[in-house]
Amino acid sequence: MELEVIGRIEILGRPAYRLRAVPVGSEDDDVLHALGSGADEYELVVDAEHGFLLRSEARLGGEPFLVLEITELSLDDDLPPDTFTFDAPPGEGFDAVEPFRNTTLE
């Protein structure tokens, strides 16, 4: 990709950079599939502080055909301790999983 910074923007209350990205060469574009493979160009919005992608717009012939964007963002919030605890539904359980073991080819 050939990248060009085309400006700054504020999105979701965060400072960000607008980038124009143009595919270069005839390499396989499977890497860009999630952003819209086959596009002539992309406009990307990247968070200025953390560097993550906030928005992408895939264009073909100057017209957008796929837009992906974060619509809500929260950073550095305190989360309750049970946020990432999964309890099985009532009456259900979990299957036992054996721990991974190293095995030789012998």
Structural description of this entry:
A 5-stranded antiparallel β-sheet has the order 1-2-3-4-5, with no helix packed on it. It has one helix spanning 33-36, and strands spanning 2-11, 14-22, 41-47, 53-60, 63-69. A hairpin with a 5-residue loop joins strand 3 (41-47) and strand 4. The chain has 106 residues and is mainly beta. The longest helix has 4 residues, at 33-36.
**Can you say what the CATH homologous superfamily of the domain at 2-69 is?**
Lipoprotein localisation LolA/LolB/LppX
Count of helices? 1
Mean pLDDT: 88
Overall geometry: extended
- Measured between the Cα atoms of the first and last residue, the distance is 46 Å
User: CATH architecture of the domain at 2-69, please?
Assistant: Clam
What is the gyration radius calculated from CA atoms? 21 Å
Beta-strand content bin: 35-45%
Query: What is the H-and-E element order?
Result: EEHEEE
What fold name goes in the CATH topology slot of the domain at 2-69? outer membrane lipoprotein receptor (LolB), chain A
Strand order in the sheet with the most strands: 1-2-3-4-5
**Major β-sheet annotation:** 5 strands, antiparallel
**Helix content, binned percent:** under 10%
Alpha-beta classification: mainly beta
Question: What's the CATH class label of the domain at 2-69?
Answer: Mainly Beta
Low-confidence stretches: none
Say how many strands there are: 5
